[in-house]
């Protein structure tokens, strides 16, 4: 029995699924089942109840889950303290990236600085949907993310990097005035933003001002895809102002300048990771890359 067995048990308890745990921890399902079996045998306690349709904790499992979480946290603090004492930053961080132009997020400059200043730190980048990041942080599938934020969330620390403006855009080919009245605008097809994301919140804010569209033709959250869909005449979408300006200059889009909202490009991670030397190193590198003052 070691710390990996406890981490696997806690993840199974949180997700309620061997399959989801295997995906989150990048293990095979037999490996997850084997670790749980080994832990139960070492403790001589039944932790999980398995049925064809569900996986639940026993009474002992519920009690020991809380204790296992404390052990895992204490082990992390122990490792971080040891790393700090030897003055080296090492290990691995999995950082999620929003589906944006990497240059906008200054990913190249950040990775170059990290490789130069912290050669012992391995960083794995994972592009994903913004709505996925919060679940992935909660179950430790990723350690941090560069994302677009609107609201603060409990348990999530945020380092704001840049304020951004988003505008509604429509196809340039449509025979519609650049600033149509709301009724005419709402009668046109729209592209729906992914739920549980800053884009969804911004679109909802705009629609609270002008009304809800009668037809939403599809859902998208990749800015290049939204740009392409609008340019192709699919519907009205929400784009970062710089992309909207670029599309207008190319004759692809019409900007609805009166329909805009703002959000933050931010670096986010779990609050309990704030003192982790690797996380401190990344935040320091981010601040230097963006020219931000120290906290």
Q: Layout of SSEs?
A:
Blueprint: H1 3-15, H2 18-25, H3 29-43, E1 48-50, E2 55-57, H4 59-86, E3 91-97, H5 102-105, H6 107-117, E4 121-127, H7 130-138, E5 144-149, E6 156-171, H8 182-186, E7 189-193, H9 198-210, E8 215-220, H10 223-231, E9 237-240, H11 241-249, E10 253-270, H12 277-290
Parallel strand pairs: 3-4, 3-5, 7-8
Antiparallel strand pairs: 1-2, 5-10, 6-9, 6-10
Descriptive report:
The chain is an alpha/beta fold. It has three domains: 3-85, Winged helix-like DNA-binding domain superfamily/Winged helix DNA-binding domain (Arc Repressor Mutant, subunit A); 89-162 and 265-290, Periplasmic binding protein-like II (D-Maltodextrin-Binding Protein, domain 2, 3-Layer(aba) Sandwich), CATH 3.40.190.10; 163-262, D-Maltodextrin-Binding Protein, domain 2 (3-Layer(aba) Sandwich). The protein contains twelve helices and ten strands. The strands form three sheets. A six-stranded mixed beta sheet has the order 4-3-5-10-6-9, sandwiched between helices. A hairpin with a 4-residue loop joins strand 1 (48-50) and strand 2 (55-57). Helix 1 packs across helix 2, helix 1 (3-15) packs across helix 4 and helix 2 (18-25) packs across helix 3.
């Amino acid at each position: 029995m070691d710390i990996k067995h406890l981490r696997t048990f806690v993840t199974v308890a949180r997700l309620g699924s061997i399959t989801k745990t295997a995906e989150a921890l990048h293990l095979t399902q037999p490996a997850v089942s084997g670790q749980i079996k080994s832990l139960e045998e070492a403790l001589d306690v039944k932790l999980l109840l398995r049925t064809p349709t569900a996986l639940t904790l026993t009474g002992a499992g519920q009690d020991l889950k809380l204790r296992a979480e404390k052990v895992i946290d204490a082990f992390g603090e122990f490792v971080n303290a040891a790393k700090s004492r030897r003055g080296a930053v090492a290990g691995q961080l999995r950082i999620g990236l929003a589906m944006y132009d990497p240059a906008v997020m200054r990913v190249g400059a950040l990775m170059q600085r990290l490789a130069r200043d912290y050669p012992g730190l391995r960083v794995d980048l994972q592009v994903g949907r913004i709505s996925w990041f919060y679940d992935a942080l909660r179950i430790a599938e990723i350690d941090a993310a560069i994302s677009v934020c609107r609201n603060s969330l409990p348990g999530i620390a945020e380092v704001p990097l840049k304020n951004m403006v988003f505008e509604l855009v429509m196809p340039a080919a449509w025979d519609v005035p650049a600033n149509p009245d709301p009724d005419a605008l709402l009668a046109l097809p729209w592209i729906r933003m992914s739920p549980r994301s800053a884009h969804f919140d911004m679109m909802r804010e705009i629609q609270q001002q002008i009304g809800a569209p009668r037809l939403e033709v599809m859902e998208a959250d990749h800015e290049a895809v939204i740009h392409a869909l609008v340019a192709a005449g699919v519907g009205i979408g929400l784009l970062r102002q710089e992309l909207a300006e670029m599309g207008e200059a190319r004759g692809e889009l019409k900007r609805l300048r009166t329909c805009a909202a703002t959000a933050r490009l931010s670096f986010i991670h779990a609050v309990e990771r704030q003192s982790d030397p690797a996380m401190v190193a990344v935040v320091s590198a981010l601040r230097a890359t963006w020219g931000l003052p120290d906290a």
